[in-house]
Specification:
The chain is an alpha/beta fold and 298 residues long. The chain is built from six helices and 17 strands.
Length: 298
């Protein structure tokens, strides 16, 4: 049995691991995919204190390396169920079942889908949710991005460096992103912006060939080679049903990162909070770890 199990190896989970290890308690960190969370697939990070600019992949790598310096036990195993009511608490992965005295949930969020015709069929065949992961496949081609927040505009800028043309589709008449990003997108000559527009269908044969878009009831089919969906995120907290979860699916917790169950903490984007950024995820991880250590000592 370990002292502290952390579910999620993003900024919140890795920060918690570092703080916990420095306090001298035993930990295991689980993640089903890769370390770094959403930060790892962000093209560029420019709002983290003391770091002027860094790629998301490089930031994630530094997180991982720092945790390993403290001999963090990071296992790439997908968690499929948990028992948060008993003591000790248990976490079951695709490979084994583990027990711990306390648990931190730092599972972050997942990207939302359009839920339009053709999206599921062509996912991985021209439909993508990660510009930095898949952008190279569309070099010198015409692509579309759907969204109006920071991620969508960051993706548009990233893809405009390698694609012939980028069409940015937003369902509202103004963006929700930071002004610096909006200004940069407006200045980029090969980015075409379509406001008040929605994607209603994605077409293709073996791969995506076009998208049907609608503007105030008028439908047009636009030839493209790929479409990137960047319309926000949502939590995936179904397995944590013993915890208090709000109507939007986020685990309820204040700045203490304590849940309604003793010995169970939550950190990062998956909890109720007004701002979801890397810096706030790291802050949550630190707070949660310190409170978990206090819980163990008590």
């Amino acid at each position: 049995m370990t002292d502290f199990i952390i579910i999620g190896a993003g900024p919140a989970g890795i920060t918690a691991a570092i703080y916990a290890l420095r306090a001298g308690i035993s930990i295991i960190v689980f993640d089903g995919n890769l370390y770094g969370g959403q930060a790892a697939i962000t093209s560029q990070i420019e709002n983290y204190p003391a770091i002027l600019s860094i790629s998301g992949a490089a930031f994630a790598q530094k997180l991982y390396e720092q945790a390993k310096e403290f001999h963090a036990d990071i296992k790439f195993e997908k968690v499929i169920s948990v028992n948060l009511l008993d003591n000790p608490k248990t976490v079951t992965t695709t490979k084994n079942t583990y027990s711990a005295k306390t648990i931190l949930i730092a599972t972050g969020v997942k990207r939302r889908t359009l839920n339009c015709e053709g999206e599921k069929e062509f996912t991985g065949k021209g439909v993508s949710y990660c510009a930095t992961c898949d952008g190279a496949f569309f070099r010198n081609k015409e692509v579309m991005i759907v969204g109006g927040g920071n991620t969508a505009l960051e993706d548009a800028l990233f893809l405009s460096n390698q694609c012939q043309k980028v069409t940015l589709v937003h369902r509202r008449n103004r963006f929700r992103a930071e002004k610096t990003l909006i200004d940069a997108v407006l200045a980029r000559k090969n980015i075409n912006i379509l406001y008040d527009t929605q994607v209603v269908k994605i077409n293709g044969n073996q791969t995506v060939t076009s998208a049907e878009i609608s503007n105030k009831g008028q439908k047009v089919t636009m030839p493209i080679s790929g479409i990137f969906i960047a319309i926000g995120y949502e939590p995936d907290n179904a397995m944590f049903s013993d915890l208090e979860i709000n109507a939007e699916g986020y685990i309820v917790a204040d700045e203490s990162c304590c849940t309604n169950l003793k010995g169970v903490f939550v950190a990062g984007d998956t909890r109720t909070k007004p701002l979801r950024q890397i810096v706030t995820a790291c802050a949550d991880g630190a707070v949660a770890a310190v409170n978990a250590v206090s819980y163990l000592l008590s």
